[in-house]
Amino acid sequence: MIQEGKSINECESFRVLAQLAKNPLDLTEHRVLTPERVRQFCCKGECFDLLYACQRVSDEVVDTLQDLADECSLVEQLAAMQQGAVMNCIHNYPSENRQVLHTACRDIFVEKPACESAAKQARVELEKLKKFLGDLEQGRICNAEGQAFDTLIHVGIGGSDLGPRAMYEALRAYTDETRKVFFVSNVDPDDSAQVLAQVDLSRCLVLVVSKSGTTLETLANETVIRSALSAAGLDPDRHCLSVTGESSPMDNPQRYLRSFYMYDYIGGRYSSTSMVGAVTLGFSLGYAQLLEFLQGANTMDRAACEKNIRRNVPLLLAMLGVWNHNCLGMDTVAVLPYSQALHRFPAHLQQCDMESNGKSVDRNGAAVAGKTGPIVWGEPGTNGQHAFYQLLHQGTEKTSVEFIGFRKNQRGKDLSMQGTESQQKLVANLLAQSMALAIGRDDENPNKRFSGNRVNGILMADRLTPSTMGALLALYEAKIVFQGFCWNINSFDQEGVQLGKILATEILEVMSEKKKNVPLADAFLAAVKMC
Ligand code: G6Q
Question: CB neighbours of 115 closer than 8 A, spacing ≥ 6?
Fold first, then answer.
């Protein structure tokens, strides 16, 4: 029986944690950060280890975080989600009332997946994609001149853009160099114009991605690109592909060369491993590497079902986040990858986390008693060190930090200078920042003093590959979901996004009625009437 509906404030273990938080471990004290602590506070996981010696936690705190995870039935709830329980709902109120099955998209490697019906649908779409990619490769699908399509323009926004874009950027080192990928998301006409200026439309596939098939920005950009195709004397229906929900307004085979489905049990921000990300990744990485990416995610999904917090990286990361946010009062989390390839990953996490857990009512529709999701942001190191790290070290705002690092670089190219290679310089910087934030430094000059006790953890893997990228994605998805369960909120709807969509449509109606420049005040008024 899944225990759902208990908020952390009602948990005995949370009361214990609140007490412990009155006197948390002081990382600046002499000999706290010993080699033994560094070794002991390291969680060895699938692909990624989590080094958490620089968190203000003792064994007692970790034990109590385990109690809290148990009291809130976090792992049981995750398993129920993977098996198809209806998790996207608010009890006693109208809500989306759906299953949450993004994990099924990659649960395709075993005979008995957690949710057979969803895994079966995932396999069907993947087979369609495999056939399509094979047809492209063999020249059975080509342009009107018989030439190969060598470019793909991915059109979508929010969940239909951020994840696929972050994954593509992360894995560029492994892509087919003869194939180019561009993304268009913003309704700003300059976004599509700058892409259109760079491509030979006759060689382009245009992948229109929209679960609802109604998103204003995506439909506007599709129209812009279709008209550019027509203007170039090309048949848009021969160049456009779609990824959409079954029976959405975009589910129209006549208008698209090929259509792929995503299902209502996959939320936009969790859709990178569905067809939303798979078509673009399959086009650029090839089908075999796409499967490696999915396999990495699936391995992490399974690892996330381990009950022991000291052996479950996503669960530990989630609970450390709860400790830092709800007990130590840190309201923002900086995700700082020491990998240039991950430069869009913090933006993806920002959506995945903040859209999921930026909620003020619990799963019963009651106001939450404590804090829910933190503010998530970040940029790659070392670049960030020359920018905002000043505030991390000496600012009055305390931020918890999640570093992500890799022992080896992706492309294998490196040069030794003054005895070390650039990859070593990168990792050395990561470790130095972690230590400096935690231990701080005293100085006679107050302006040169570093208070320390600025908590951080390091996720460390060998190399960023399709498989480790899949694992990292699934690790963070599980972390976000665990935290949502812990706060007893629905992490799977997004009423805040829906409101914006409705209001913009209303203002546009006013604008189109008046046909020319509408005074701003009139436009605002249209939105006010809707609020
Ligand atoms: C994600 C959100 C949101 C959504 C976009 C695009 O979880 O629901 O970011 O992905 O608004 O929606 P469509 O895919 O329906 O165009």
Answer: 82, 83, 84, 99, 101, 104, 107
Domain ranges for the chain: 11-71+306-490, 102-294, 498-530
Q: What is the distance in angstroms between the CA of the first residue and the CA of the last residue of the chain?
A: 40
Protein residue with its CA nearest to atom 16 in ligand 1: 210
Digit-coded pLDDT (tens) for 473-491: 999 999 999 999 999 999 9
Query: Quick one: average pLDDT of 280-302?
Result: 98
Q: Which residues pair with 335 in a beta bridge?
A: 402
Give yes or no for a contact between 86 and 20, defined as CB atoms under 8 angstroms apart.
no
pLDDT at 386 over 50: yes
- Segment 58-86 shows an average pLDDT of 97
Residues 6+ apart with CB under 8 A from 114: 79, 82, 83, 84, 103, 104, 107
Q: Spell out the residues 6+ positions from residue 386 whose beta carbon is closer than 8 angstroms to its own.
A: none
| Ligand 1 neighbours (beta carbon < 6 A) | 157-160, 210-212, 215, 218, 267-269, 355, 494, 497
Q: How far apart are CA 164 and CA 258, in angstroms?
A: 19
Specify the ligand 1 atom closest to the Cα of 244. Answer: 14
Q: Please determine, looking at this structure, whether the domain spanning 11-71+306-490 carries the CATH number 3.40.50.1820.
A: no
Q: Which two tokens stand for residue 178?
A: 């003869």
Q: Please determine whether the domains at 11-71+306-490 and 102-294 fall in the same fold group of CATH.
A: yes
Q: Is 419 left (phi over 0), alpha (psi -120 to 50) or beta?
A: left
Strands 151-155 and 86-88: unpaired
Residue 523 has pLDDT above 80, yes or no: no
Residues of the chain above pLDDT 90, percent: 90
The pTM for the full model equals 0.95
φ/ψ of residue 373, rounded to 5: -55, 140
Does domain 102-294 match CATH 3.40.50.1580?
A: no
- Active-site residue flag, 501: yes
